[in-house]
Design goal:
Elements: H1 2-16, E1 21-26, E2 41-45, E3 48-54, H2 56-64, E4 71-72, E5 82-87, H3 94-108, E6 112-127, E7 144-147, E8 151-153, E9 156-162, H4 164-171, E10 181-183, E11 191-195, H5 198-201, H6 210-218, E12 220-236
Parallel strand pairs: 4-12, 6-10
Antiparallel strand pairs: 1-5, 2-3, 2-7, 3-5, 6-12, 8-9, 9-11
Amino acid sequence: MRCLVVCALLASSANAATFDVATVKASSLRPSGAEGSKRARIEYTPKSLTMRNVDLLGCVEWAYDLPAYRISGPDSMTREAYDITGKTDIPVDVSQLRAMLQDLLAKRFHLTVHRETKPVPVYELSIAKDGPKLPAPKPASDLQVKESLPRVQDGSFVFENATLGDFAEKLSLLRGVELPVIDRTGIPGVYDIVLKSAAGALLQPDAPPVSTFVREQLGLKMTAAKVPMEVFIIDHFEKPSLDVM
């Protein structure tokens, strides 16, 4: 009897890390070359994960909850884009969804990885002297939506559905930043953040740095630092077999 119970628990644990239903298809957006063709969109609920126009780098980022600057791999990781869905019969938390995606990447992409620690130059995002000036946090929701890039709207950068960690990660992608940005604010919550006029200003030759907009509009500061950091090394992957459209 004891063996039966232990075996059942092990089987349950193994199943918890695998989607009940999953598909991997070629993205219909990436080949177009139109505006937004590089933008990935990730949505998840307690019973599903939907990834649109996501490359392997984006998959690894979400599966292991890592920003892109902590992942080292060949450029070919970003050449192909996919639409990936995964569903579970019972509700699970986001950490289990991430584990399920890790399992899918190992099985469908034959992904293998290892980790190394090395010093990395960064900007640390922290609270400025006069305190933060963030918008009100958004109410909790079962449906979570994350995009890989900030939007440009009326000359402003718009960061939708962003934690401060998400915001810091996307700051790293903006012109003139050039280093990873790490959230040290300790501020929880999800926000819609707007850096007013920043996108338009950065097109000008005498534009102030992004850090100026961040400090003046959000009450946050960016400080240069060098920190030891665990880096995720991609050892091997293959193109997956694709499901029928």
